[in-house]
Specification:
globular; binds adenosine-5'-triphosphate; Rossmann fold; about 35% helix; ATP-binding; ATP binding; MacB-like_ATP-bd; 4-stranded antiparallel beta sheet; ABC transporter ATP-binding protein; 8 helices; transport; about 250 residues; 6-stranded mixed beta sheet
Length: about 250
Amino acid sequence: MTARSEQRPEQRPEQRPEQPSEQPSPLLSAHALHKSFGPTPALDGASITVAAGELIAVMGPSGSGKSTLLHCLAGILRPESGTVSFDGLELTGCGDARLSELRRSEFGFLFQFGQLVPELTCLENVALPLRLNGVRRRQAEQQATEWLERLEVDDLAAKRPGEVSGGQGQRVGVARALVTRPRAVFADEPTGALDSLNGERVMQLLTTAARDTGAAVVLVTHEARVAAYADREVVVRDGRTRDLAVAR
Ligand SMILES: Nc1ncnc2c1ncn2[C@@H]1O[C@H](COP(=O)(O)OP(=O)(O)OP(=O)(O)O)[C@@H](O)[C@H]1O
């Protein structure tokens, strides 16, 4: 036993001081967002908070504003009013160049159809975000190889996206989304094009990898079994959000 542990004997659970009940301060938050497309309102006062390491499922009916909320959070769309903050930085006050730099260096993206670049091999696709951040080819490809191994698709490194299955392509997409170790990951229906077995596998790999890297994940999904991987659910209806505490 060390001197330190002698001085401070381990507390039994019932002796522990009460933990503060507040949520951890959010890494990413949006407040009172409004966004319309012409006459169509997409967001009507939507708000959301996401802590580092937290996985939030954004659910709701088709056309309710889920993707628009995700795109505003990721700095892809600008809301007409309301604020979006990432780690204390007000995204809504940033210029386009700062936003694209933020997306490249701090955010990872995963979409329904993987959206891999068809001309590049799977390895080059995963290395691409690193290359765009100025990492040298050799180092980028080495890191990409490690991520392909982690997602159990390293045998596909030399293949192009057109030569792999949907599930395999989506695992390559997960590797590409996480290869820069982003602090926030935005996933829009990442399992929407997969059968349930492949969908489960992609979700397991995505959640394990995101938890290992401590990334905050915002996941838009229609599927309750996909949302079951989340720590919390936010439901969007008619452009407004409702937070559901999920006991897990
Ligand atoms: N680029 C756009 N141009 C015009 N209208 C748009 C555009 N993007 C979204 N909308 C409209 O905004 C509203 C919200 O769309 P959004 O895609 O955010 O909903 P969603 O909940 O993600 O839908 P889904 O589940 O079907 O993908 C819808 O009425 C949609 O038609």
